[in-house]
Design goal:
The chain is mainly α. The chain has one domain. The termini are close together.
């Protein structure tokens, strides 16, 4: 039960951060000028990638351990949903954006990034729901 509780905590931390970025940080960033949005995005993305990728992998490992220790297959499935977010942290085209690039092209890249963020948020929310409501 300890492994399951730890997996749930880590998944909740990941999901909370993902929800915050999707529904608060990204919309706020998009209200700024492209230059300001880009200058804020770069350090934010770098730090968030380290934190959230670590949480996703740790949550996956804890969920697998919980499943193997008798918590049931739902924990493995939840862990797989959570670790499925990791490929979405590949280097982004926004990182390579030249600050002199026309604002519309940069904004399109931000839109693509927001879509990836929404997928990560959805996958982690599914994992959390599985852990809380089905895995117990």
């Amino acid at each position: 039960m300890l492994l399951a509780n730890c997996a749930t905590l880590v998944t909740a931390l990941f999901t909370g951060a993902a929800v915050y970025v999707t529904f608060v940080e990204q919309p706020a960033r998009m209200k700024c000028s492209t230059e300001i949005a880009l200058s804020q995005w770069r350090p934010s993305y770098a730090r968030a990638t380290i934190m959230q990728a670590t949480l996703a992998i740790l949550g996956f490992l804890l969920a697998v351990a919980a499943s193997l220790s008798g918590a049931g297959p739902v924990w493995l499935i939840a862990g797989l949903f959570l670790v499925a977010v990791v490929p979405f942290y590949a280097p982004s085209d926004v990182e390579e954006t030249d600050p002199e690039m026309p604002g519309e092209l940069t904004r399109d890249l931000f839109g693509h990034w927001a879509n990836l963020r929404a997928v990560r948020t959805g996958l982690s929310a599914i994992a959390l729901v599985l852990m809380i409501f089905i895995g117990r």
